[in-house]
Amino acid sequence: MRRPLIAGNWKMNKTVSESVEFARNFVDAVSDVADRDILICPPFTSLQVLGQIFDGTNVKLGAQNMHFEEKGAFTGEISPLMLKDVGCTFVILGHSERRHIFGENNDFINKKVLSAVSHGLIPILCVGELLEEREAGRTFEVVGTQLEEGLKGLSKEADFVVAYEPVWAIGTGKTATPELAEEVHRFLREKLAELFGKEKAESVRILYGGSVKPENVEGLMAMENIDGALVGGASLKVESFVKIVNFGR
Ligand code: PGA
Question: Is 0.70 surpassed by the pTM of this model?
Fold first, then answer.
């Protein structure tokens, strides 16, 4: 009953011309896919042109980050109005690279989540533990706090997505096993039920991210509480991302 969502996070990859080449081929390759949502989050510089290419297709456009203010003296930042203007419907917020390289904390990410929702963008809130946190037995505590503080003040009518991305699995080739990921996804859904009620919790999509590839997507997507994937490296090539999009088909 939860519609799967397969999202590509290109991170800081692809020039405009590389993005356009990918997008043209990709749109054709997935045009017959109707039973799942497909999303691409390119760098800011490629958003506008991909917005035009994806317009009227089954591929949605998202950003990898945003500021919470609409405009003003925030050098180097991009606002929700700007994202809407170029055709974004989703925005990734609180990615572990934002948290750990750029120092974003739960409070700052929460402001962005609330702003995204109030501007009609669907936030994908990322949560995930570091290897040392997992080894110290703190996984549930860490992701539980990230979830609760990241979603603070959100109404249960809000449309949002959660992504569980264990930091030790991102870009390392080490995927969490389906069972290990499912354990955390189940915990997150229980936590969502505490925060927003059971009915809402059952409707929220929880994506898995961290070295998702064509070879491991089937096992992950077979899990009850895994509703999609947030794909980094394997979303950069049309062939591998199309295979992931087509899981189960
Ligand atoms: P990866 O990245 O698929 O390259 O591990 C996932 C992510 O960080 O969203």
Answer: yes
